[in-house]
Specification:
Oligomer: single chain
CATH architecture of the largest domain: 3-Layer(aba) Sandwich
Order of helices and strands: EEHEEHEHEHHHHH
CATH class of the largest domain: Alpha Beta
Strand content: 5-15%
Number of helices: 8
Distance between the termini: 37 Å
Structural class: alpha/beta
Length: 209
Amino acid sequence: MRRVKEVIIVEGRYDKNTVAQAVDATIIETSGVRILSDGEKIALLRRLAEKRGIILLTDSDRGGFFIRGRLRGLLDVSGVKHAYIPDIEGKERRKASPSKEGKLGVEGMAPDVIIKALEQAGATFEDEADPPGGERRKPDECRLSPPRCAARISKADLYGAGLTGGADSAIKRRELQKRLGLPERLTANGLLDVLNILYLREEFLEMLR
């Protein structure tokens, strides 16, 4: 599966599932237009755009273009790329009827269509396979951002810090997210993705001491 360096922004969880079947990437949902009034999440997207770059991949209907246009104005344009899906008539399998405009959304696209849209947007593909056994690459082989090539923060690190698996782990995550200026509603997996974009593992472990 091809890896994409940029963070991909989609509208909903079904879109996220579809894109995850096409490429290996960090994918964040807008939850529709709700993101436009979520100052914390907008601030996070700005940080991600600066650190990794982001790709907006919304539906090709009026709602999708409305979200895209508003985010274009709220984010640093230099760190944002735009991927567009083609206009294809039809409906997604899970829906009883087509959308108002009768077009398939991102969730209805085939993997090759998603990949083509990302290619046309100028996505940065990092296709090298992971080494056997999960060993880390040498710095000059790092498949993501070479200046930040280091061991990644793992689920075990979150567990060891009491951020998952404990009775008060959710409280500890919220406290950490508040301290780091991250959205309160991030899931544990979402937090892990964001931490690996913004911090080296050594930096993360140091801030916990």
